[in-house]
């Protein structure tokens, strides 16, 4: 089995690129952020405060996260319900960063993520894939871009989804989320020592996809 591990800050284009590379290579694309988002949605729906680590730990016992694929698109099932349509709001984004720092939340998803990579070729993206989930992945990429560029992309994405948003606020939220993800004690966002850095600030999607394909060819 071949695994490609992709990490990087919010809005760097990880999922767009990973989806396309998965299609070209015939790999399964695994979006681990969506799994953490589904757990955050559960906490929000049940009125559990992000600061209440004990309640969050308890609630983890009542959560079951699984994946299904529809036309190659990953769907996250939260206790059997497809929640893909509810996990992309800014409120869920921030709640996810606020709760994914807890050990119990991370433990809940680790085996699921590792097992996916045991049985099939995967391209998996997140924050701790190269450092923690798949430390032996033969290809690790740290995909980044300037915060302005990342905010611009996120703004466009939200507008296309019909969600009203403010550019300045999106940039502030992205910076706050990265800071929190990079500074947490458990599995912080960090480049793995053996990861290749790709800065996509001035690259088109096709250029980044080609770069990934070249890196894959070198390693496979
Ligand atoms: O990638 P995405 O923006 O969907 O991730 C949402 C949040 O989930 C991140 O800000 C981070 O807090 C958390 N996350 C994580 N570990 C991962 C993937 C995402 O902690 N492997």
TrEMBL record:
Keyword vocabulary terms for this entry: ATP-binding, Cytoplasm, Kinase, Nucleotide-binding, Transferase
Cellular compartment(s): Cytoplasm
Ion transport recorded as keyword: no
CDD domains: CMPK
UniProt feature coiled coil, ranges: none
Gene3D superfamilies per record: P-loop containing nucleotide triphosphate hydrolases (3.40.50.300)
Name listed for the protein in its UniProt record: Cytidylate kinase
Gene that this polypeptide is encoded by: cmk
């Amino acid at each position: 089995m071949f695994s490609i591990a992709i990490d990087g800050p919010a809005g760097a284009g990880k999922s767009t690129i990973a989806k396309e590379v998965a299609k070209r290579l015939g790999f399964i694309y695994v979006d681990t952020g969506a799994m953490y988002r589904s757990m955050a949605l559960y906490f929000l729906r049940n009125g559990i405060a992000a600061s209440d680590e004990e309640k969050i730990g308890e609630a983890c016992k009542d959560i079951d996260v699984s994946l299904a694929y529809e036309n190659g698109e990953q769907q996250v099932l939260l206790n059997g319900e497809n929640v893909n349509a509810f996990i992309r709001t800014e409120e869920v984004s921030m709640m996810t960063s606020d709760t994914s720092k807890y050990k119990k939340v991370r433990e809940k998803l680790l085996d699921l993520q590792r097992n996916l990579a045991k049985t099939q070729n995967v391209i998996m993206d997140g924050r701790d894939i190269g450092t923690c989930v798949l430390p032996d992945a033969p290809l690790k990429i740290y995909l980044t871009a300037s915060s302005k560029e990342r905010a611009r992309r996120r703004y466009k994405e939200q507008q296309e989804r019909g969600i009203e948003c403010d550019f300045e606020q999106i940039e502030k939220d992205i910076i706050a989320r990265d800071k929190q993800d990079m500074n947490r004690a458990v599995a912080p966002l960090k480049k793995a020592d053996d990861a290749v850095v790709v800065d996509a600030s001035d690259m088109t999607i096709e250029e980044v996809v080609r770069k990934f394909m070249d890196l894959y060819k070198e390693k496979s």
